[in-house]
Structures are given as C-alpha cells and as structure tokens.
Amino acid sequence: MKRTKIVDIFNPELIGSDVCVKGWVRTKRGNKHVQFVALNDGSTIKNIQIVFDMSRFTDEQLKPITTGASICVTGKLVESMGKGQTAEIQADTLEIYGTADTETYPLQKKGHTLEFLREKAHLRMRTNTFGAVFRVRSVLAYAIHNFFNQKGFFYLHTPLITESDCEGAGAMFQVTTLNLNELPKAEDNTVDYTQDFFGKPTALTVSGQLEGELGATALGQIYTFGPTFRAENSNTPRHLAEFWMIEPEMAFYDITDNMDLAEEFIKYCIQYALDHAADDIKFLNDMYDDKLIERLNNVIKQDFVRLPYTEGVDILLKSGKKFEYPVYWGADLQSEHERYLVEEHFKRPVILTDYPKEIKAFYMKQNEDGKTVRAMDVLFPQIGEIIGGSEREENYDKLLTRIEELNIPMKDMWWYLDTRRFGTVPHSGFGLGFERLILFVTGMTNIRDVIPFPRTPNNAEF
Ligand code: ATP
Ligand code: MN
After folding, report:
1. 430 alpha carbon to ligand 1 midpoint, in Å?
2. pTM of the entire structure?
3. SS3 category, 179
4. Residue with the nearest Cα to atom 19 of ligand 1?
5. Is the pLDDT of residue 84 over 80?
6. Mean pLDDT across the stretch 336-352?
7. Which residues have a Cβ under 8 Å from the Cβ of 457 and sit 6 or more positions away?
8. Model confidence pLDDT, tens digit, residues 397-408
9. In the structure, which protein residues have their CB atom closer than 6 angstroms to any atom of ligand 1?
10. How buried is residue 178: exposed, middle or buried, by Cβ count under 10 Å (0-12/13-18/19+)?
C-alpha cells in the first residue's frame, strides 16, 4: 500500500479508508487491552495516533516499539474520540524498521533543555521544537526566493573562495592546500603563496556583495543567498562562524528605495511564515514565548521608524539609561543600544541611517556633510541588527580616495573599481542575516538553535 505522509492524513476525505504511515515513535501508552502509539514522520508537528487492539497483537510484537523506534503501520483511518486529534489509525499490520534502545537513545525522555539538545545536534531535529524550527527555516528560504522572483530579481551565485576581504574586517578563514607543517618559503622568508593552489592567499568569503554589485550593474537587480564565513571569536547568541546571508543589490536604487525594499521584504517573509508554517509557529508560541505571534503581527502592521544615527545617539544619551558600553557620537552601536531604541523607545523596528563613515565600510556613499555615509541598518526587537545595507558610492574618485585613506590594497580592488569606471550608476543593496530572521520568526533566543549544524569557536563536529 502507498504511504501517506502524516501532514496529509488529517484529510476528512480519507476517513474510513485503509492507509499506510511510516515514521518514528514519539510515545507509547495503554493497558493490556489496548495500546496507543504517537507517530511522527517529520512532515508536520502533528503526530498521528495509532491504536493497537491487543486481541490482535501480542505483547512480544509491540515490545520493540519504544520512543525513537521506526515503524510502518497499515490500518483503517477513523475519526478520533481523543481530545485534540481528529483522526486515528486502527492498526492492522505492523512492521518494525529499526529499534531505539531505551537505555542509550538520548531522546528517550521528554523535556530536555535546549543546551542539552545542542550537544545532541545530530539527533535534535527529531524533537518537536527543532522539527518546528527547521520547517520554519525551510519555509522562510522558499519565501525569500519567491519574493525576489516575483519582483524580477535574478539569483546570482557568488564565489565562496575569494582573494578579497569585502568588509575589511579581517576575520576570514584562510583556504590553502599548502602543507602547514612544511610551508614553502620565499626569499624574504615569508610563505611562498605562488606554490599554493590559487597561486595567492585566499579565504572563505565574508559577503557576496562586491560580486553582487558586478551582477547588479549588468542584470539590474540581483540577489545572492548563500553561506558566509566570519572567523570572529565572539561567543554571542547572535553570531556564527558560518551563517547564511541574503544580499540583494539594485542598480538605480537610492537609499530610500533600498529602505522601502528592505521593509517590504522582511514583512513579506514574516507573513509568509505565518501563512505557511502556522502549526509550527503556534507550537513555538505556546511552548516558549506566548508573545511571539503578537510580535510577528505587530511588525507586519507597523511602519518602521526611519531615523538618522545622530538622532538615535541623542535619544540614547537622553534616555538616562545605564548601558554596559558607552554611547557617544561615533560609537558603533551595540545590541543593547539597538534594542533600547526598538523595544523601549519606539516599540517597533527602526531603520537607522547616515552613520559616521569611520564605523562603516569603504563602499558606502558619502554624504555632503563629509562625516556620514548613506548606511541603513534595520534594527529589530529581540535581535538588534538584522539587516545592514547602504547606497553605494558610485563616484570613482570619491571611492578611490576612501580606499586609499583606509589603506585597502588597490591591486585587489581593480575589478571592483571597474564598475565605477565603466557606466557607473547609482545603486544600493543590503545584507539580511538569515539566522537572525529565523531567530525573530521562531522566538528562539540562541542563534545556535536555528541552524542545523552550528559552527562556533571550538564546535564543528557535526
Ligand atoms: P554585527 O554588528 O551584529 O556583528 P555586522 O555589522 O558585522 O553585524 P554586516 O556585516 O552588515 O553585519 O552583515 C549583514 C548581516 O549579516 C547583519 O545585519 C546580520 O544580520 C548578519 N550577520 C553578521 N554577522 C553575523 C554572524 N557572525 N552570524 C550571523 N549573522 C551575522
Ligand atoms: Mn559583525
């Protein structure tokens, strides 16, 4: 008999028919007359209840059915009398695929902490919580492609291995095939990279933006969606060493167009998740954070505040609040400052613009005041910065001056500067941290819990 996924089984038209389901046992309970098994196959947060009439099965047959075991059951789908469920299966046949030893299966008991499950990342997707989180993650990825596809953007694949350090932050993972125990040396005793795979030092990319700009100044509107790598040794609940970023880049967009797009985009993604992952989000709301759905709806309903950095700093200075990190004009705002503006002062998302040029990347468009650049960071409740973006400096001379001021090696930048030498245009873009969006939509509080296999300092086992 053909298998029906559990997500499809709660269909009233199937009541009365014979079905076949396959999955992993969540619980078994009952007495000597009847046994109830809750089965989950990952297709939905919902379990299907299977009823074993013990006049038709032996104790021996049901003994291997413990939490975590995998089974195949056929039987008749009937309306359920049990509360909270619409249908159940009266078992006819049972096949056991694999057992899960009650002594050694780590998820035998319910109610493990998220910290414990992080240590069992290879199995944690089998829990209700992580099943829900990773279904939401998948739905959001689909929403992102949908949004840009509907808007006529092209999906551009930018390289993961690169010679350039886009953000100038320096926190890159080096890529090499050289034998680290026997490094070839040049005459001046430095490493001889001409013998390395690419003939030059290379690293994993921290952003696809610079290549994205090449795409935007050819195809008009592009977006990237891929992994990025930052060797920042910061053990925060918002940073990973490997994370996924979405980076749209648009020719002929100024900063206002850029902000409009960012706001529309993020609202679309949240609405899409509410519409297409409703059961999972409701589960997370009920289990972890009963303000979650309310918060998601609020963000969709409200216009984001748009505020220059300078005014944001004034508000923080006048707040009378004691922050861990000092606030002054020129300071790179910390998550605590961003969250104060969003959660306490405005009570909705804030797009902060026109940051001091010293704390932003070289490629941002310089304002007339000579002090600030046309940056736009989107700040969110619970998260802080979720998007970083800007209008780009399209003037060749101004860009060159900035590159020289910052001592960025020019020989690495010639290909990027060509966008400004040949047919330069006003253009803008931004980067959304995918895991930060998932944090917001799921209400999880640690970024390690929204990526299947988190990479953080000292953690890359599985
Ligand atoms: P932060 O100040 O929070 O470290 P950033 O200024 O370094 O962020 P950008 O370089 O602007 O961030 O990157 C764009 C987006 O990528 C950020 O808005 C954030 O959502 C996400 N992001 C940046 N670094 C990380 C990281 N280490 N792990 C997960 N997401 C990140
Ligand atoms: Mn950072």
Report:
1. 11
2. 0.96
3. coil
4. 433
5. no
6. 97
7. 233, 235, 241
8. 999 999 999 988
9. 167, 230, 232, 239-240, 243, 245, 385-388, 431, 433, 435-436
10. middle
